[in-house]
Amino acid sequence: MIKVYVPTDNDNIDAYFNTKEASNDVSKINKKELDQIISLSLGNQFSDYEIIFENRSDGQYIIVETDLDKKWITLSADYTIKPGDTGSTNAYFAQFIPMAIAEYYLDQTVKHKSMELYLKGTTHNRAKTKAQQIYYRLAKTVGIKILNEFEFSTDIRRSIAFPFESIEEWKKARNQVSSTNRGNKPSYVIENDNSYVFYGKTFGANGRESIFILYVLANLALKEDKKIFLYEVTDNGTFAFESSTNEENQKFKRVLKDLNVVYYADSITYVENEEYENLSDENRDARYQAEFMRNLLYKYNCKRGDDGNVVLASNGKPVIVDDTKRCYLCHCDIQNLIIASHIHRVCDINKLEIPFKERRAMAVDGDNGLWLCSNHDKLFEYGLIYFENDKMIISDKLNEKQKRFVKSITFNTPKEEIEEKFAMVAEESEPYILDNSFHIDEKDYNESMHNYLEIHKNRVLK
Ligand SMILES: [Zn+2]
Question: Which residues make beta-bridge pairs with 262?
Fold first, then answer.
């Protein structure tokens, strides 16, 4: 006998199937639509099923259980039901699906488990946006089948046909979409050599979306043999998700931990240094790369208005338009090669006899850093390049041929593209090489950065 588990108290599911009334009188259930979903899920090979009402409001999914299979079928919102309801992209299904994922993942059944998605109101624009299409592909990436995909036009079906093969592919697709709209993403991802750092909220509606994305990325990262560090973005500096005792959060945490997602919260930043907690303030390492990189994103990857000023989101933080790291001195964007490079080195900051808090503040200060490729990072580290105010100097330790090489790989953003911060040097145009003079963009150069550059210069010229 097929069993179908239906929540009684979920508002959307009640609206679709009349579950509140039907839990007292099962004949009141909207069986027509339920039949349709089950037949899409099982094929037409089902006779009858038993409906079991579950007393839950969370988790907008039903469970279909046969002798061999157990399926968690999430239902989307339906923006066509309420006239005038424009809805939001992630409130369509992305913020509902984590609950099904957690139950699916943690369920101990020996039956074959799977997740599916049934979309309501597929004619509504919100079901068809480019951003929504990316969510569909994310779902497919972890094997979530969309039962009624056929309701979409051929164009949409074609564009959502394939799962994402890599995190990079997903990032590109998403950055493309956000460059055409407001670009205010609730989460962003930095790729490092052996890991990714995921920055996002983990609570509220955006938090649910983050959990969904993290779940998919964690699966992709496992294939790449990389770890994901989760850096919670909060408005008040607390790490809500990490310490939450909320049952739902506990489940999400178990799933993510299983998939090798590591919290990059302050308390466990130094996974390589287990003694960290016991260190006294003066012996603490001020290094905190996750926050440093976040601040570099805020400085170099943010949206700027026509006046050149940083555009702030509603939470007062800069809007990050593109989470791709680019070398400040050559625009290289091969993610594995780009380093969050300190101007005033953390190993030197650690030697300063000032309170830990102040050392930490310097170590994470966006003005104390640049995204640099491996070449430029090493040139800078060894003092083969340094800055005289905003102007880059090539050290006389290099011979003429070596200096020419450094010049050839170092160029300012072409003037006509300065507003378009992220535009690459046009392929057909000559690289914009100024004779021995690279200048830091005036919108990035400030007193604080100047002071750090002076410290660097004094160190390397000593
Ligand atoms: Zn470079």
Answer: 229
CA of 411 to the centre of ligand 1 (A): 9
Task: Compute the distance from residue 62 Cα to the ligand 1 centre, in Å.
Answer: 52
Asked whether 253 and 207 are in contact (CB, 8 A), the reply is no
Q: What is the Cα–Cα distance from 60 to 93, expressed in whole angstroms?
A: 9
203 confidence band (pLDDT: 50, 70, 90)? confident
Residue 343 CA to ligand 1 center (angstroms) comes to 15
Report the alpha-carbon distance of residue 384 to residue 370 in Å, rounded. 16
At 328 the pLDDT is 95
C-alpha neighbours within 13 Å on the C-beta side of residue 251:
15
Q: Which of these, 398, 392, 405, lies nearest to 329 by C-alpha position?
A: 392
Q: For residue 155, how far is its CA from the centre of ligand 1 (angstroms)?
A: 40
Tell me the C-alpha distance between 443 and 158, whole Å.
43
- The residue type found at 392 is M
What are residue 261's DSSP bridge partners?
228
The Å distance, Cα 372 to ligand 1 centre, comes to 5
Is the model's pLDDT at 295 over the cut of 80? yes
CA of 375 to the centre of ligand 1 (A): 6
Per-residue pLDDT of 363-409, as tens digits, reads: 999 999 999 999 999 999 999 999 999 999 999 999 999 998 998 88
Find the mean pLDDT for residues 196-206: 84
Q: d(Cα 404, Cα 394) in Å, to the nearest integer?
A: 10
Nearest-angstrom CA–CA distance, 63 and 343: 55
> In the chain, what percentage of residues exceed pLDDT 90?
61
Longest dimension (CA), the chain: 89
CB 371 within 8 A of CB 328: yes
Could you tell me the distance, in angstroms and rounded to a whole number, from the CA of residue 133 to the centre of ligand 1?
34
Reading the block at residue 159, the tokens are 């564009």
Tally of CA atoms within 13 A in the half-sphere of 153 that contains its CB: 9
Token pair 């938090």 in the structure block, residue: 207
List phi, psi (to 5°) of 83.
Answer: -60, 140
- Cα 338 to averaged position of ligand 1 atoms, centre (Å): 8
Residue 165 half-sphere exposure, CB side, CA atoms within 13 Å?
Answer: 2
Q: Which residues contact 91 (CB under 8 A, 6 or more apart)?
A: 77, 205
